[in-house]
Amino acid sequence: MDRRSFIKSSTASAISLGVGFSLFNNEVIASNTYFGNPWIKIHQDNSITLTNSRTEMGQDVYTSISLLIAEELDCSLDAIRIEAAPFDPTNHGNAMLGGLQLTGASTSVAGSWGSMRKVGATVRTMLVSAAAKKWNVAVSSCSTNNGYVMSGAKRARYGELVDLLRQEPIPKDPALKNPADFKYIGKDIPRLDGQAKVDGTAIFGADVRVEDMSTAVLMRWPVVPPNIHGGMAVKAVDKVISYDADQARKLPGVLGVYRIDEGIAIVARDYHIAQQARKLVKITWDLGDTSGLKDTETIMRRLKDAAAVKPGVVLRTQGDVKKATSAATSAHTATYELPFLTHANLEPLNCSARIANGELHIWGPMQNPHLAHTVGVSISGLPPEKVFVHVTFIGGGLGRKAEIDFVQEAVAIAKASGKGIRLMWSREDDTKHGAYRSAAYVQMEGALDAKGGMTALRVKLTSPSVISRALPPFIQNGVDPFMVDGLHNLNYDVPNYEAEALIHEVGVRAGAYRSVGYSVNTYAIESFIDELALAAKVDPVAFRLTHLNGQPRAQAVLKLAAEKANWNGPQKPDRFLGVAQFSGYGSFIAVVAEISLDGTEPKVHKLVAAVDVGRVIRPTQLEGQIEGAMVLGIAGAMLNRVTFKDGVVQEGNFDTYKMLRFRDTPPVEVHIVNNDNPPGGAGELGLPPVAPAIANALARATGSRLRTLPFLDV
Amino acid sequence: MDLTVNRKNYSFDGSPDTPLLWALRDHLDITSVKFGCGEGMCGACSAHVDGELKRTCQVSCSEATGKDITTVEGLPPKVAEALKTAWLELDVAQCGYCQTGMIMAAADLLKNNGNPTDEEINDAMNKNVCRCGTYGRIRKAIHLAATRL
Lengths: 714, 149
Description:
The complex is a heterodimer of chains A (about 725) and B (about 150). With about 725 residues, chain A is an alpha+beta fold. Chain A contains 18 helices and 27 strands.
C-alpha cells in the first residue's frame, strides 16, 4: 500500500470509498465518522468495516481474506462488517492475474497473503502510534488485543482513535506478526457468511431489489457461441434476419420487446410473463454454416485430425524422448478424450443494470467486475467514473461468471429499453450458451526400462484455447497458460520429457472451468502413469513415489493418502482402489478412489484425499473446498458432457445435463498436511485427480481402461 | 388474489397461473426461495405449502392461494434453530445458493422421520442439487439437527 492509496481514500473519493456493496438484505450500515483506507474503515462507534477485494462464490474469500486483515489489525471478526469492493483496480486488482480486478485461478488467498496482512499491520501500527502520542508513552509500551490498544492501565478502543489516526504517518514496512502469535489464522472460526446463507438474507445476483426494476429475458442465436479470439468483450453480431413480436407485445405484463445485437430482449413485469412472451416471438435467424458442428463426433474428429497433422508449440523438452524410447525395454502409447463441459452453476447467469441520471449501475454475480466496468463504459458511453459495479454473492461461479457476456447483455437491454432491468437466464439459456470447458484430445507416449522405471514421457494436448478469446494478453509465444497447466510444470522426475500443446478451434466457445487445464491434463497424465505402472508391474503408489524424486511435499501427500485409504492393507472383496496425484497452484494433492463394479461400470464408494496447501488459513474451509471440488470431479468423471447437433447444444435442463445428487455422492475424506510454507491455492485443487483415480481403480479391477470421459453412458 | 406467506397476508395482482416462485420473488420480494431450473429438478425453490414440501416453481398461485406458505424465514423456531445451528457448526454452506432449499427439504424430512439414516436422507434429499458438493456435510448436519429435536 502506498501513500497515494491512503490519500485518495482519506479524501473519500467516490470510487474508493462509500460505495462498497452491502451483501445482506437486512443490514443496518454504520454511517458515522471513520478513518479508512480502501480495505479498512474504523468507525467512531468502534465498528469496523472491511472491504473484500475478491468475489465470494463459495470458496470462502469473504472469511479467509478478512481473516488475513483482522489478524494483523488484531481484532476478532465477531463484530466486523464486510462489504464487496467497488470497481477500483488500483487497490483491488489481482496482481496474480495481470492486475485485473478478477477472482479466479485459485489466486485469492495466495495473492492476498502478503498484501492483506500488510494492510492490517499498517493500520495497527498507526493505531499504536496514535495511542502512544495520546498517552505520552513509548510505542514499545503499547500492545493491542481484539480492537483495543493498551499501555499499562490505559486502554482505548480503536474507534476512539479515529481523529488521531488522521494525523499519523503511514508506516512503510509495518511489522507483521510472528506466525506463532496468530490468534485467528489457522483456527476454525465460523464462516462469516454462513448465517446469511442459511437464513436467506444473503444477496445473490438476482436478489438485488431496487426501485422500478423489471425482468428481462433474451432470445439468443441458437447456435453455440464461437471461440473468437481477441477479447472477452467482442461485440455481438446481430444474427436476426426478421422477427415478429406483435403477439408477445400484447401479452399483459409485457413492457417492451427490443432488438439488440445479442438477440431479441423481452422486458416484462416478472420472469414468468417474460418467459411466456418468449414463446410468442417468432424469429428467423441467420444460422450460417454449421456443417463443422454437425454433431459431437464431427467435432471430436476435427480435434483428432488436427492432432495427427499439425504440430503444437513445444512447452518443455528435456533429454531426448525419441532416443530413450528406441532404447527402452517397452514403449507405450495411449490417447484420452475429454468432452466439453458446462459449469451448470445452480444460480443461472443474471445481471441487473440501470442507466439513469447520467449514471450506469450494474449489479450481479461477477467474478470479473473489471471487465464489467469496461463493457459498461463502452456500451453506455458514460465516463468511467459514472459507471458503478456492485458485486453480489455468487451462487456458484466455477469460472463462468468471470465471463462478461451476461453483463454486456444486461447493459445493452437497459440502454435499449431505457428501463432498470434484471436480466435472467433460464437454465436452458445457461446450458446452451456456455463458455465451455474445452474438449480435448491428449496423446501420451511413455517408455520403461528393464527395471520398470519410466525413462521417457511425451504428451501432446490438442484442444480449443481456454483464454485466447477472453483475455488475449495472457497468450505468450502461442502458449495458452491456462490450457497447459500440468504439462509444462509436470511434477514427475523423468529423464526424457517433452510436452506439446496445439490450439485448435472447432467453433465452440471455451472458457475457464474449475481447475481449467489441470482438469484435462491430469486425467490424461495420471491415467497414463498408471498404465505405465501396471505395464511395469510396479505398485502404482510406489511407481509414483519413485518418479516424484526431489518432490518431498508431493511424496508426503501421496504417502498420507495411501495410508489413510489403507492402500497396502486388505480391502473388502468387491472393492478396488485407484490413485492419482498432481501439484498445482503452489499446492499438492493425492486422491485414492475406492470403487466397486456395477456391471462394467465403476461405482464410487469413497474418496480419500491428502493435501498440502502450505499454511492453512481456515482448516474447515480447506476441507470443504477439497470435498466440494472432488464431488464436482465425480460429476465430471461419471456424468457430465455437452453434446451438439447442427451447431446447437443438445442439453438444456438437469434432465439432460445431469447433476451429481445425494444418492451418488460417496463419503469424501480430506487429510491435511499443515506447514509453514506460504499458502497456495485450494479452490481448484480437489478436482483433477478424481477422474483418473476412478479410472485407475477400474483398470486394477478389470484390466479395462476408460480413456474417454465421462465414464457412464448418460 | 391473496397469498399467505409466513403467516403474513399479501395481495398478488399477477396472473393466477404464475408459479408461486415468481410471485414470491418478483412481486413480494421474498428472495430466499431461489431459481435454479424452473422444472422442479433442483429444489432451490423449495418451500412448504400447507405443511407439504413443494418446489414453488411447480405450484401455481391459484393452487397456493388460501394455503399457508412457509419459506425459510417462517420455519417453526425450534426446527429452524436446530437446522441452522447444525449447518453453521458444520460449515455446510459454500456458495450457499441451494442451502435455503436444502433446509426446507431437511425440515420436511425431520418432521416425518426424527432419526433418519444416511440412506433415508439420500432418498428424501435427492431432488435437491448442490453444485458445490456439500452433500456430505448436509448429511452430517441433518443427523446433528435430529439429535436436538
